[in-house]
Amino acid sequence: MQNHLDARRNPRYGKNGGREDVKTHHIRDAPISVDSKVYFESYTVTRSKISTVIRFGNIYDFNYVPLIYREFDKNDKEYPSTHFVMLNKDAMLKYCNIDYNALLDAVQHVPFSKDYSHSLNALLLEMLKAYDESKNSRIELLSTATTLALWIKDSDPYTEHPIAILNYLQSVKRSRTLTSTEQAEILSLIEAAQDNESIYVGAYLLLDNPAAAKIHFDKLPEESQKFFESCPIYHFMPNGQPTISAPTEG
After folding, report:
1. Edge-to-edge, what's the strand order for the sheet holding 37-47?
2. Per residue in 117-167, pLDDT tens?
3. Contacts of 24 by beta carbon, 8 Å cutoff, 6+ apart
4. Residue 56 forms beta bridges with which residues?
5. How crowded is residue 226: how many other Cβ atoms within 10 Å of its Cβ?
6. How far is CA 159 from CA 95, 114, 118, 156, in A?
7. How far does Cα 211 stand from its chain's mean position?
8. How far is Cα 245 from Cα 250, in angstroms, rounded to an integer?
9. H-helix or E-strand containing 137?
10. What share of the chain is helix, strand, coil (3-state, %, to 5)?
11. Packing angle between helix 210-217 and helix 197-206, nearest 10 degrees?
12. CA nearest to 56, candidates 32, 81, 34
């Protein structure tokens, strides 16, 4: 999906956001890195038959970009979003000035759409990947991911219910043992008919049953197997015998 910052300015930052009128230009945006910190730079591109002129604009604090951010779906129709969905695993590990409270506030103030829901879940999974790659040292990533996953589970009408449950509980499982109530919720997914075989794989992994997970994993097409291996829930697929965690009461 393409993305851009809308040329219209957020009204709380002034009529033109302190910048010149760019209606005749194409506006672009890009995160930039300075001393392990991330900022946001906007610039305009004016094209003619004989030349392309690039004019660099303002550099903003990445956490508080005073512009309206929008993305385009596959039909080139724009929908509201937030620039925080641009963050990936590498950015989260590299930059030290990302305000995750600002991220949570921003994502929850955007109206839901099918495409925005996809972006939210992608952001969540990148967050979990970053936490795992940090060797469990970036606690703020896991805390933010858990809060985001819970909000998606409770509020997002576009994310499939089984996916939302597994994403939330895989976040929780990284910090503590799942309660008996949470394990029962996962069992209810297994007992229900699922069109997506991956649901069974993820569910059994969260229940510390990799043998059953492997049976369902082998039923996936090769391309789906490779995709599943790239997902953070594959973190729970052990190389040897599972270590069964006793459930706590819930």
Report:
1. 26-34, 37-47, 52-61
2. 999 999 999 999 999 999 989 999 999 999 999 999 999 999 999 999 999
3. 46
4. 43
5. 10
6. 29, 8, 8, 6
7. 29
8. 15
9. none
10. 45, 20, 35
11. 170
12. 32
What span, in angstroms and rounded, lies between the C-alpha atoms of 68 and 9? Answer: 6
Residue type, position 47, single letter: R
Note whether 113 and 79 are within 8 A (CB): yes
Q: What is the pTM of this model?
A: 0.74
The rounded distance, in Å, linking the Cα atoms of 163 and 137 is: 26
**What is the four-CA torsion angle of 107, 110, 115, 121, rounded to 10 degrees?**
20
Return the beta strands (E) in the chain as ranges. Answer: 3-9, 26-34, 37-47, 52-61, 67-72, 78-80
Q: What angle do CA 209, 128, 72 make, to 5 degrees?
A: 120
196-227 pLDDT, tens digit each: 999 999 999 999 999 999 999 999 999 999 99
63 phi/psi in degrees, rounded to 5: -75, -20
Say how far residue 79 (Cα) sits from the centre of its chain: 17
Structure tokens at 169: 């509980």
